[in-house]
Fold this sequence. Notes:
Blueprint: H1 11-20, H2 23-31, H3 35-83, H4 88-141
Domain Phasin: 37-128
Pfam families: Phasin_2
InterPro entries: Phasin (IPR018968)
Amino acid sequence: MADKGFxxxxxxxxxxxxxxxxxxxMMPKVLQMDPQAMMSMQSRNMEAxxxxxxxxxxxxxxxxxxxxxxxxxxxxxARERAGGSxxxxxxxxxxxxxxxxxxxxxxxxxxxxxxxxxxxxEIVSARMKESLAEIESMAKTKK
Length: 143
């Protein structure tokens, strides 16, 4: 495409890049592709995006439910412990334990979010590879 210094947000760079593209060479190949096959391919692309979004939404829904559960549990424990009298050392120990549990829970939740994003990316990435292979196949069959 272009060198490492290419900036797609620079109007002059984009104009030069568009001017240098061999669109005339590409158009005959594009025009020869089967429109029905292209529509079918785009439909599969949209299905893949929908599946990726559904997987991510479900994972984030579970993640939110776990966050609410952790918050409610920690509030309940804080109320129970606050009810009794506690010296400064006991309060410090309680806070340290609460922070440790909170960090453990947040680490687990962050890992779950990362797994959800990875799963969504795998779906989209696989479909992108299939789509490119389909385009190559369409271009070869119409030559």
